[in-house]
Amino acid sequence: MRYLYAPLGSAVLLISCGLAQSGGDDGRAVVAKAIQAIGGEANLAKFKAYTVKDKGKYYGMGDGQPYNGVMTVQHPGQLRMEIEGVFTMIVNGDKGWIQAGGQTIDMKPEQIAAQKVDRSASLIIALWPLKDKAFQLKPLDDAKVGKHHASVVQVTRKNYPDVKLYFDKTSNLLIKAAYRNHSQEANKVVEVELFFSEFRAVEGVKMPHKLALKHDGKLFVESETVSMKAHDKLDAKTFAKPAAE
After folding, report:
1. pTM value?
2. I want to staple 204 with a disulfide (CB 3.0 to 4.6 A). Which of 40, 43, 71, 175 is the partner?
């Protein structure tokens, strides 16, 4: 149930990757400032793969239901999410499975499609992939995120969701991201908003330790990081189809 933006990947140096351009505070320059503020290329590079333990509440079915979870990610398209006592979900590229109640079932095509949008958005939120000129970065008008004044950059690319990134103008940290995706609970396309806060250093990277996820302005998930660990590379078995219990 967790979205993170900094593990979210490895970044690149301001000049060598071409994110910073002289003479203008364009979208790439804003992203470059954020990469510096997060911790820089060397530290971010540790988080191409990572595991996060978190706790929080899920509001998708009404009243907030507490949960404890473990999420393992390996960019660009692998995810393992374990919600204690409820289910395990694995996404591995174009395939996916859910294990619950002692059974393992294949995810439906529409579930895979929604997960691919989330994985693509997560890659954009990671910031480091934006060095690829296939991503178009357009600065938008400044906005308010709570009490924060934010610079806004819209990221577009073919076959990716359009994602708006909101960077605090004081700290340069990414404090919000927004895009659209299909919600299984609502059975419609919704505006997905992620709000990041309580940044603390993990292996030299300023990671958000609190997240609020909203769908169409309504709280969907709120979570708090318990622990976080970066990995060099995860075993392929981590994202293999789980055996039925």
Report:
1. 0.86
2. 43
